[in-house]
Amino acid sequence: MLALRSHLFNILFYANLIIWMVVLAPIYFILPRKIAYNVPKSWARFNHWLMKTVVGTHFEIEGLENIPASGYILAPKHQSFWDTYALLPWLDDPVYILKRELMWIPLFGWYAAKQKMIPVNRGGRGKEMVKVMQRTAIEMENGRQLIIYPEGTRRPPGADPEYKYGIARLYRDLKVPVVPVAMHAGLFWPRRSMMRYPGHYKIRILPPIQPGLTPDAFFERLTQELEKASDALLLEAARDNPDLPLPPTARNRVDTLLGKQ
């Protein structure tokens, strides 16, 4: 039954993505950019409803009061494709730095261009990165929220952290608050797997780290605070979902935190 519900959700999820992109394209591209953003926001809400209805997975968000009113960097843990759209309904005007190749994908790339996402040639150096930083600074001055995954790519729940120093450079150069976000959606929507697991989990938005620290001091503080919050949420998720099959990385981390190793 679990496998059936997982496959049904996956079919509906990707069908829903295609339908929204195709059917709503005329409306999306005619509307002003910020009004058009309601399309992906509504798509994300519908996906949350699908996950809850089909799979039986639901979540709650703690710390929404910690989100600043003006431009800031959102720094979530990244374990699942779910993370890429999960918070869209609660963000006013987000912007991503993404691989330029993604902008070449029909429909998706056009949608991203409409929202002024920032493409980057990851093989580029020097002037390329200067252009990206200049474009990012302009978007932040307009009060947008830059979403950056500090570890760069999806990591298994409970795995040793591998934070990239690039976020410290962004913190230094953009001079805006950084808001860490802890979550363990990867326990319920695992990377590289078609399975989806029922249960309940939390997203915890931490107080922002204000500008003014040295890059090294910021990087250490971000790592410590986000990992501490992630460990706490992992223990809560394991406790509240006793039937959830934890991946080895998560099980080992839980055992370590509970002093079983």
Automatic annotation (TrEMBL):
<dbReference type="GO" id="GO:0006654">
    <property type="term" value="P:phosphatidic acid biosynthetic process"/>
</dbReference>
<keyword id="KW-0812">Transmembrane</keyword>
<dbReference type="InterPro" id="IPR002123">
    <property type="entry name" value="Plipid/glycerol_acylTrfase"/>
</dbReference>
<protein>
    <submittedName>
        <fullName>1-acyl-sn-glycerol-3-phosphate acyltransferase</fullName>
        <ecNumber>2.3.1.51</ecNumber>
    </submittedName>
</protein>
<dbReference type="GO" id="GO:0003841">
    <property type="term" value="F:1-acylglycerol-3-phosphate O-acyltransferase activity"/>
</dbReference>
<feature type="region of interest" description="Disordered">
    <location>
        <begin position="240"/>
        <end position="261"/>
    </location>
</feature>
<keyword id="KW-1133">Transmembrane helix</keyword>
<keyword id="KW-0012">Acyltransferase</keyword>
<keyword id="KW-0472">Membrane</keyword>
<feature type="transmembrane region" description="Helical">
    <location>
        <begin position="12"/>
        <end position="31"/>
    </location>
</feature>
<keyword id="KW-0808">Transferase</keyword>
<dbReference type="Pfam" id="PF01553">
    <property type="entry name" value="Acyltransferase"/>
</dbReference>
<comment type="pathway">
    <text>Lipid metabolism.</text>
</comment>
<feature type="domain" description="Phospholipid/glycerol acyltransferase">
    <location>
        <begin position="72"/>
        <end position="186"/>
    </location>
</feature>
